[in-house]
Amino acid sequence: MTPVVEARAVAFRYPSAASDRRAFALDDVSFALSPGEIATVIGPNASGKTTLVRLLSRVLVPVRGTIALEGEDVARLVRAEVARRVAVVPQDVPAGFPYTVEETVLMGRLPHGPGRFFETPEDRAAAVAAMAATEVTALAAEPLARLSGGERQRVILARALAQRPRLLVLDEPTAHLDLRHQVEVVALLRRLNAESGVTVLLVSHDLNLAAEVSHRILLMAAGRLVRTGPPDAVLDATLLESVYGCRIAVDRRPGSHRPEVHLIWPPRATSSPGARPPRAT
C-alpha cells in the first residue's frame, strides 16, 4: 500500500548569520503515514514540529532528502496540486478576519480552481458537506469574528475538509480551547477519520491528547525524530524525561488502558531540554 506521505532522510536548515552557531536544523527525518492513520507529532519547543509541517505542505523545501505524497515527489508538484492533497489547519485565524462562515469554508476550494472568481456547483456541494460534517451549517451566515473559540476551530477545520485532502494536518487543534471544546474537537477528529478515512497528522504539546487519538506518535527533539511507534512504545517515562528535561510519570487510564502522562512535583530537572537526544528507534 502506497503511503499517503513519506519523508525519506529529510534535512532542512534555516538561513543564519555566520556568527550564529545555533541556527535550527532538521536532520535525517524519515517516516511514512498509511491511508486512514492518525499520527501525532510531539516534542518540546524548537524540536522541529512546525518546520516539519511546513515541509510537508511545501512552504519549505528540504535541503536534502525527499517528501512524497502518494508516491510522488513533492518537489515535482505545483503548489496547487500539493494544496489539493494536503490541508493544514492552523491554531487560529488572524484577528478581524472579515468573512462569514460559508465564505471561509468556500476558500478551501481555491486549490481546485486557482484564478477563477466564482464557485462551481461542485465547490458549493463540497462546502455544504464540510459544514455538515463539522456541525457548523447553522452558522453559515455568521461572521467568523463573532464565533466562540470552539466554533471557529470547527469552521477552520471545515475549510480544510472542503479541500477534499488526502492528508489533514492540524497544528495544536485544541490550543486556547476550554475543556468542553477540547472534547468536541477530539470527538470530531475521531468521527471524521472513521467516516471518511482521511489520514490525520496532529502537532500537539498535549501528550495525553496524543495518547487518546493516535495510532502512532512521532517524538521529536533538537531537529531529530527520536522515536516513532504506538502510544505505549513512545510515551515512556524515561524517554520523555530525557527529551523534556523534567520528571514524568506514565500511568494507565482506567478502562482504555491508554498511557496517561503526569508531571512529578517538585520539578527537579533531569536533563537540559533540547539536548541532543538518542537516535530514532
Describe the structure.
There is one protein chain. By secondary structure, the chain is of the alpha/beta class. Helices cover about 30% and strands about 25% of the residues. It has nine helices and twelve strands. It has helices at about 50-55, 80-85, 100-105, 120-135, 150-160, 180-195, 205-215, 230-235, 235-245; strands spanning about 5-15, 25-35, 40, 65-70, 70-75, 85-90, 165-170, 200-205, 215-220, 225-230, 250, 260-265. The strands form three sheets. It has a six-stranded mixed β-sheet with strand order 6-7-8-3-9-10, with helices on both faces. The chain has a four-stranded antiparallel β-sheet with strand order 2-1-4-5, covered by helices on one side. The longest helix is centred in the C-terminal third of the chain and has 18 residues, at about 180-195. It is globular and about 55 Å long. The model has no long low-confidence stretch (mean pLDDT about 85).
